[in-house]
Amino acid sequence: MDSIQVYDSTKFLHVNDISITDETKQLLEEASKVYWQNFNGKTWYGRCIFISWYCALGDCTFCFRSTNQHKEMHPATSRRSMASILIEALFSRIFGWRIEFVTGGYGVMPFSDLLKIIKNVSIVYGEKVWLNLGAIPPSRLAELRPYIKGIYGSLETVTPGLHEHVCPSKPLAPYEKMFADLDPELKRSICIIVGLGDTLDDLKYLFDFIEKYRIDRVTLYALKPVRGTEYTAGPTSDFYLQWIARLRIRFPKLQIVAGTNLRRCEEIGYVMKAGTNAVTKFPATKQFGTQKAHLVDKLIREQGRTFISNITALPDLDWNAEIDALQIDDKYKLEMKEKIVPYLNRFRNPKDKDSAFWDEE
What we know:
The chain is of the alpha/beta class and 361 residues long. The protein has one domain (6-313): Aldolase class I (TIM Barrel, Alpha-Beta Barrel), CATH 3.20.20.70. Helix content is 39%, strand content 16%. The protein has helices spanning 22-38, 68-73, 82-94, 111-125, 138-144, 162-166, 173-181, 203-212, 237-250, 268-273, 284-287, 291-301, 319-324, 330-348; strands at 6-7, 42-50, 98-103, 129-132, 148-156, 187-194, 217-222, 234-235, 255-259, 278-280, 306-307. It has an eight-stranded parallel beta barrel. A two-stranded antiparallel ribbon has the order 1-8. The chain starts with 5 loop residues before the first strand and ends in a 13-residue tail after the last helix.
């Protein structure tokens, strides 16, 4: 098996469409056994909170930010408002979503603005958060330390040669230095994309990196091709599941988060069998309460997991009172009250879509 196994990412993948080999079935059985020997079944939805849509690098070969269309739509001034960011942090706390990380493109804003955002997100969420904003120098980390629990590195791939092609302006060396010098009390995590050209044999590079830099968590994504990049297809479920399962078997206590999207979310039951702790990238705010959200919830619970996040049922809350209780600037509270209305209207009126050409992002 190698990375030439792909599936058409423009089509929705349904449970009955998923085909896996006998080898992968055996790996899933072993990975599931390892998972239950080391974890208690609590499973969550991880929410990535973006602070902007711009990136100063803009040349990672798989990324939507590298396309001309994106650069025209989202220039350097393309930043989200504080209120919209804090609404997602509020939802994360109330719905039991764990903030996967706070992220955005490189070079998006002055550090003082970033510090203010991270501080407010931490206040609204009620705990420290993970941060994914490139290789951050120790002096900056010291200022962020009161509000963050760990640092992510979006490495995409650690395979020599392939990484330089995929991320020409994002070398591994600064991340390696950051992790080597990191405060031991801060946790360490990396993001890896499956489907960029790595083979199963290349897992050895990932395993070596995890061991060398004492990585606590790995988030794996199945590549979702973006129009305008060189990639046109994502990995098959079989290939993606092999990566997850082999990672779980090799590192029994590692926290593993698996990315999905609307079109391939029905493989989540298999993803649970492969030994993941959580799922991320499901478009929960756009799909809250839909049939797809209910199916995701069901597929997770069918694997004996306790799904501690809510993506299906809107609680009966006084949302304005929830916002008023936050220890943040009053101007942000006023803006949040305005911006939360369309979210709640959508949650109350969920709309399902399952079309091959509908873009859920």
